[in-house]
Amino acid sequence: MTRPPTAAQRRVIGAADPTTGRLRGTQGQLAALVNRGLAFRHPRPPHDHFLTPAGHRVRETPDALPDGPEAAPRTPAAPAAEGGAGVFAARIGGEDAPAGGPSRTREVRSAWAGLLELRRMTHADGAADRPCGWERTHLVQAAALALEAAGHRPAGVDAGDGGYRVRATPQPEAVAVHEPGPEALRACAATLEKAGWQTGEYTEPRTGVRYVLASPRRV
After folding, report:
1. Are 113 and 166 in contact (CB under 8 A)?
2. Could you tell me which residues are beta bridge partners of residue 177?
3. Using H for helix, E for strand and C for coil, what is the string for 123-181?
4. Which is nearest to 127 in space by CA: 40, 174, 195, 76?
5. What predicted TM-score, i.e. pTM, was given to this entire model?
6. Alpha carbon distance 12, 105 (integer Å)
7. 33 near 2, Cβ under 8 Å?
8. Fewer CB within 10 Å: N-end or C-end of the chain?
9. What's the pLDDT at 86?
10. Would you list the DSSP string of 185-199?
11. Main-chain dihedrals φ then ψ at residue 116, nearest 5 degrees
12. Residue 66: predicted pLDDT
């Protein structure tokens, strides 16, 4: 079992910024938190340190023991495509998932920030305004993350609950976004366009249901 953080480390964790998780402490303290998977060092200057999800849990539940290294490494990592214990997963709509709260909001914000940094690091021009390679191989998860990060609500298990649903399509590099109500659907399209996706609104011939077809913009 992983040893609990020391009293000094808990004080550093407790003093972290409640929104961003930014840490302040000695280099030794910060390095120790990184080694325990409770913090990560940002790869770009000024190389600040931030709490990982495990570190946030320690901050929120002082008596909780960390599960071990599980979050942002020393270089930005893309959000997980699959869910799992202690692993962030974008909500595509229709999951039997608990209601969002401050912890979920923070996780989504952190995942979106990490994805933007991944864009900057993998695009030759350092641009963050268009999707990167990871997004093109995880279309559904990438589009869902962009929507959730912008404040859109994913649909619940009950189809009548409302909220967005992102689904794969037979078309290459394209996902379908469903949302009850024309205004909500257009709002989803606007969010994806702002996040670097191309969108178009279409009608399903057999059902007459309107949906948005979205694909990552290349330039």
Report:
1. no
2. 166, 212
3. CCCCCCCCCCHHHHHCHHHHHHHHHHHCCCCECCCCHHHCCEEEEECCCCCCEEEECCC
4. 195
5. 0.65
6. 22
7. no
8. C
9. 46
10. HHHHHHHHHHTTEEE
11. -65, -40
12. 39
Instruction: Quickly count: other Cβ atoms within 10 Å of residue 170's Cβ.
Output: 5
Closest to 155 measured CA to CA, from 80, 211, 193: 211
CA dist 159 and 161 (Å) reads 6
Distances in whole angstroms, Cα of residue 1 to Cα of each of 43, 65, 83, 96: 29, 9, 23, 30
User: Count of residues for the chain?
Assistant: 219
Q: Tell me the C-alpha distance between 207 and 64, whole Å.
A: 50
pLDDT of residue 39: 85
Cα angle value 177/200/80 (rounded, 5°) = 40
Please tell me whether the peptide bond between 46 and the residue prior to it is cis, using omega within 30 degrees of 0: yes
Residue (of 128, 93, 107) closest to 212 by Cα position: 93
46: left (phi over 0), alpha (psi -120 to 50) or beta: alpha
pLDDT digit string (tens) for 64-105? 433 333 333 333 455 655 444 345 788 999 887 766 688 888
Per-block average pLDDT, block size 10, for the chain (219 residues)?
77 82 88 87 78 78 44 44 58 80 87 87 89 91 96 82 91 93 96 97 92 94
